[in-house]
């Protein structure tokens, strides 16, 4: 299975279903199942700022108890959108995304926290994530850069229901 290593707190925000797009400087053609691996690095400044701090708190997380060095969720990578619009963020801001086929446009507005959970600068990419299953017990794993192969078989992982 493909996996991606993501710095905390963003890996946990995905696992909790709070973050629907993972923003990257590069596009991917991969679609389908993907494991979310929480890297060992925690962005403590991001964890202290709202709405990240308050969202984590709603789920019982703080900077001190975020899982690291482990797979925290499995999900479906649905599409890879290119950020094509400028953002006047956070006031009146909207990120304009173009899907991989170039036929659909999607706007992300400050009405929810999504704009705060990623870097929607023009020219970046937003990986659309769906069908998230967080791991009841995160599975220790060594992460890598880029997309990498993770062998889930025999790992003894248990997904939430």
From TrEMBL:
Gene3D superfamilies to which the protein is assigned, alphabetical: Hypothetical protein
Cited CDD domains: ASCH_ASC-1_like
Tree of life domain: Bacteria
InterPro entries linked: ASCH_domain, PUA-like_sf
Domain ASCH: 5-79
One Pfam family matching this protein: ASCH
Record-given protein name: ASCH domain-containing protein
């Amino acid at each position: 299975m493909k996996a991606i290593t993501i710095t905390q707190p963003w890996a946990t925000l995905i696992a909790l279903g709070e973050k629907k797009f993972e923003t990257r400087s590069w596009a991917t053609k991969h679609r389908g199942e993907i494991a979310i691996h929480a890297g060992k690095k925690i962005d403590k400044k991001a964890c202290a700022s709202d709405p990240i701090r308050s969202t984590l708190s709603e789920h019982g997380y703080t900077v001190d108890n975020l899982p690291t060095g482990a797979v925290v969720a499995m999900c479906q990578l649905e599409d890879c959108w290119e950020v094509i619009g400028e953002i006047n963020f956070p006031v009146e801001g909207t990120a304009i995304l173009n899907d991989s086929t170039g036929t659909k446009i999607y706007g992300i507005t400050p009405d929810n926290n999504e704009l705060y959970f990623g870097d929607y600068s023009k020219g970046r990419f937003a990986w659309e994530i769906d069908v998230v299953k967080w791991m009841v017990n995160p599975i220790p794993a060594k992460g890598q850069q880029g997309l990498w192969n993770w062998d889930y078989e025999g790992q003894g992982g248990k997904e939430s229901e």
